[in-house]
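ok so for the tutorial part 2 we go from a plain amino acid sequence to predicted structure tokens. step 1 is just haveing the sequence, like this:
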Amino acid sequence: MPHAVVSRDEWLEARRALLAKEKAHTRALDALNRERLALPWVKLTKDYVFDTDAGKKTLAELFNGRSQLMVYHFMFGPEWEAGCPGCSFLADHLDGTLPHLNNHDVTLIAASRAPLDKIDAYKRRMGWRFPWVSAAGSDFNHDFRVSFTPDELAGETVNYGYVDIPVAQANDELPGLSAFYRDEAGQVFHTYSTYARGAEDLLGTMMILDRAPLGRNEEGDMDFIRRHDEYETAPRIPEKEPGCCGAA
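step 2 — the prediction. this is what the tokens look like for a chain of 248 residues:
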């Protein structure tokens, strides 16, 4: 898109007008965050068990002694050979947050339905350190509406992100982010989940690009994203690559 080239004074006038909108957006976001924190909680009564590098663990044990747990629902199905490129892009942003979150009483993990050996192999390939568990054999992914059965995908719609979406926009796995709280008695509560672009604020790269001269410079959502070891060989996501949240 061509841009006007103006004097510094004209630029400052336009920049100050945008600044007023940016400040209003910041105040609106602060208010939205307060409403998010005020949401009611749901006590979980089902026992979810996961495969971890330290053996089988319940959801309560995944808190690792902290009171808060954030679970990134990483798209990696049981039959897949690699994780979703879009989820991999997001995961590249997680390791640096770990010491800060842990010090703030928050444990962050990823969870997928792929078996643990596939998860561990892919994690080594990507060079990640964050905890990643397998929900294979558990109802966890289905209950939190990020995995879908063949019967569900045989219909016209599936419920994802609190709304019914066309099956053509769905997949057997989809991304999301869920939050949980564990009280002193060991009770676990579901406090929040978000889906699709709801977790976009985790993508620090996108936040930088939004302020770069050409922005995201994409033709479709995240169409330029590749796994970080694949940019030289495949700079754009193939249209038919399975399991890419960025291509959905």
